[in-house]
Amino acid sequence: MNGKTLMLAALMAVAPAQILASSVYKWTDENGVTQFGDRKPTGRQAEQVNIRTGTSENAGDIRPSPQQQVQALEEQQQESAANQAESAVERARQKQREANCETARANLEVISSNARIRIEENGEMRYLTPE
Do 27 and 45 contact (CB within 8 A), yes or no? Predict the structure, then answer.
């Protein structure tokens, strides 16, 4: 029972403050400048202004414009095309490396088997000496 009483007292204390806080008056002073205040001015005619409170939008909730979306999509496509070109170049390099490796293995096998090494000079094959 005490919890309900305490809650009711707190609600009654907050409700008038909300009502008073939302009262805003607008008037024009003797210099022609528009003034705003939370209390009605004495000796002047004032208009009560309705204040609407709203929620602010989070920056993360703002969607990009269609032009920005199109531009982002084009950038992604360009990056994708560049990545595909780079991967094609890398695949070609890898094939060349594998071919070079096979050639090196074959040369190593020939040298390791104590075979005589031949070179081609002027269209003729010649064997190298052991030195």
Answer: yes
Query: 116 is written with which tokens?
Result: 């005589």
> Domain limits of the chain?
9-49, 66-113
The number of beta carbons lying within 10 Å of the beta carbon of residue 25 is: 16
CB contact set of 56 (below 8 Å; sequence gap of 6+): none
For the chain, how many helices (H) and strands (E)? Answer: 2, 5
pLDDT 10s digit of each residue in the chain, 131 long?
A: 576 776 667 666 655 555 555 688 898 888 888 888 888 888 888 888 888 777 666 655 678 888 999 999 999 999 999 999 999 999 999 999 999 999 999 888 877 876 667 777 777 777 777 66
74, 66 Cβ separation under 8 angstroms: no
